[in-house]
Design a protein that fits this description.
single chain; mainly alpha; two-stranded antiparallel ribbon
């Protein structure tokens, strides 16, 4: 490249050269320290498989977001997840007797 007077100039570095692209990753919040780390959580099986293949984090019924990597059989079930799961499996609608 030359300037209007015929002198050589530096290449234009504001434009990317070649076929490069920027890959954007979704923002993942790190797991909060606390009791969530001590429990096994309820997550849909398909989401666990997707996480293992694609590396995406999962969301438990209780709201915990993380990338599963440990054997859940070694931990007790999260009480919040269990309560939500039991409520989904046995809906009560808050009525003890038929109206």
């Amino acid at each position: 490249m030359t300037d209007p007077f015929g002198a050589p100039t530096a290449p234009d570095v504001t434009q990317p050269a070649g076929g490069t692209a920027v890959l954007e990753r979704p923002e993942v919040k790190p797991a909060e320290p606390g009791d969530h780390e001590r429990f096994a959580h309820y997550v849909r099986k398909a989401k666990i498989t997707e996480s293992a293949v694609m590396g995406k984090p999962v969301i438990a019924l209780c709201g915990k977001v993380w990338g599963p990597s440990r054997d859940p059989k070694n931990f007790p079930v999260c009480p919040a997840c269990k309560e939500i799961y039991d409520g989904l499996m046995n809906p009560d609608n808050g009525q003890d007797e038929p109206a």
